[in-house]
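User: Can you help me understand a structure? I only have the sequence.
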Amino acid sequence: MTSTMRLPALSNNATSLENYIHTVNSYPMLTLEEETTLATQLRDHNDVDAAGRLVLSHLRVVVSIARKYIGYGLPQADLIQEGNIGLMKAVKRFDPDRGVRLVSFAMHWIKAEMHEYILRNWRMVKIATTKGQRKLFFNLRSLKTGSNSLTTSEADAMAETLGVKREEVLEMETRFNGQDVNLEPLGEDGEEAYGPLAYLTDPEAEPSQILAREQNEQLSSSGLVHALDSLDARSRHIVEARWLREDNPATLHDLAAEYDISAERVRQIEQKAMQKMKLALAA
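Assistant: Let's start by predicting it. Here is the structure, written out as tokens:
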């Protein structure tokens, strides 16, 4: 199956990765009837074209799962490639008579290949080879409720949930807290690589940008006050009740009852007030 089927090109180059994701998202999803027919053709007649359609229609699932493992600091393209291998294994083993959709069956195989890849390549967990250690590695982060170290009771509860010893939970937490990771990416073979800085850096956290945002917010706030001051009391109340309340903004009918006028009249007052405010803000 893998020797004759051609997958979309994929590399760690950012542009190539974006193009790949766009391409796989363009492949149509299969209906249950289509999936069953193709899977039956593959199982009964070893139809490679049917296998290809099954794989291509589920590549987006691999991309979605790969995003969940970006935090481990490994290239997303590599995670996707490993996941694609798991997807092809799943397609090869899928039996439509089991009564489950391929996406549910394939998720196990996709995650298994990604897990193996992460364990092979993340230095901190090269010794995480037992079943219990692997279970801890991929679940400890999601089970922790904060950044502080686990208490004894928390460790006991987590150990019971995962079916491991408390000592194993505490040991794996120590490895997480003591990891040594290069912040800068290490380029290999001339290809673009990704390090933690690629996803930890906040481009909007530059001091100049923070100052500019604060100044814009201050100007916007003072401008709004000036615009509201240009309105008469009734118009201002209508605008504030309709647009500036955080909870339970008033409806046209609410204000119509309050002022004993029609809802249409309230709308006209509101529209005229908004136009006046726009002129005040532009001044």
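Now, to help you interpret it: The chain has a mean pLDDT of 77. Residues 207-282 form a domain with the Arc Repressor Mutant, subunit A fold (CATH 1.10.10.10). Let me know which part you'd like to focus on.
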